[in-house]
Amino acid sequence: MFFVYYTLKPLLDPRAAQIVELPDKVERYFYLTKGRPVAPYLPPTTELSLYERAGDMLTDFIGNPDCVLYISERAQQVLAARGLVGEAVELLPFVLLDKRGRKMREPYFIANPLRSVPCVDRERSKYRLDGPDEMGDIRMLHVRDGSIPDDAQLFRVAEFPEMMVLRSDLLEAFQQAGLTGLAVHPTGTEIPG
Question: Which of 87, 89, 109, 164 is the most exposed place for a label (fewest CB within 10 A)?
């Protein structure tokens, strides 16, 4: 079967809610950008608040500057139905507070993809180097043919773990569930921002 791959990140829409306080609240929060397990450092009682200066539109994928997937229960259900929760994606519940500091009713989670796939086509991709062979940013991702395992639906780019990639059938499942707040860009196209 032929799949298309997309880079993803939460949508940064000025009308949408955001979370910006993760580094202040979670020890070793940077593990969440590297695909390392974080459960020992993020108990389910961890409280994260919606950012006061952001919009009020609550989406299924909450925007943030930290390259983290904050997801609603509906998004979590799609991941679970596709068999991704566990080895492929660590699911971390937390307490979401509204702008007034009140607990939100709907549960939210951090989805931490743990799988990394070395897949960057270095000749066709556009990226910046932070060291002799260390990618500091990718502006356009081209994946090497045959580099992505058949069972990889959501994963991190091993050469630049801050970047997450999802497969077209998972994106279709998100869309069929009516999930909001996710920005995707087909591989091989310029990534805005």
Answer: 87
